[in-house]
């Protein structure tokens, strides 16, 4: 079962203040995070600990994260963003 306090904390951590990141991360937390398998939830938690500049480069697909686990969750976030 998902702890709603944890989801709220993640929502605030996902709010980066950079529009390009906010439009990707906040909807992902609101609509997808609760449905993720535990491993993907842990990946997302690790993802949002990174610097905005890294996140920006990864989501614009200018750079691939060195950590394959982070790369997996970046792809999930991008997949969600591209789904109408």
From TrEMBL:
Keywords: Chaperone, Cytoplasm. The keyword Cytoplasm applies. The keyword Kinase does not apply. It is found in: Cytoplasm. This is FAD assembly factor SdhE. Pfam families: Sdh5. Gene3D superfamilies: Flavinator of succinate dehydrogenase. It comes from the Bacteria. Its main location: cytoplasm. Belongs to the SdhE FAD assembly factor family.
